[in-house]
Amino acid sequence: MIRDVVKDQMLLSIKSVPADKNDLPVVIDLLDTLKANADHCVGMAANMIGVRKTILAARINGKFIVMINPVITERSKQIIQTSEGCLCLSGSRPVTRNIMIKVDYFDRKFNRKKGIYRGIEAQIIQHEIDHFNGIII
After folding, report:
1. Active-site entry in 74, 84, 121, 128
2. Which pTM does this prediction carry?
3. Which domain holds residue 117?
4. For a tag on the chain, would you pick the N or C end, based on fewer CB atoms within 10 A?
5. What is the CATH number of the domain that holds 109?
């Protein structure tokens, strides 16, 4: 189900909690909402649809993926200064992001996964993980 995007910064500033198998319906709603906004959005955190769980959906290499309870386990020392937008806010803001990250997470079937992400993909994941911590660009 496509959900409305939360724009209330007070709600978005509340930290998310780990997800479990009972949260799988959230995964579907998050993917549906991301796909509905795909012309101007590449990633979403669950709190953006009003669910304070550590679930993100993103378009990586042209595919929609889900990361449940992702944890960045390694970051490159090399960083980039860039600007990002967010469906929750108007305009864009300057950010600093690591160019490469390693991430441990569960997929939508709760299989353990690991991935190395670089460039824009790393940027998207870092942005959404910031949402889990109540950080809005």
Report:
1. 128
2. 0.96
3. 9-132
4. N
5. 3.90.45.10
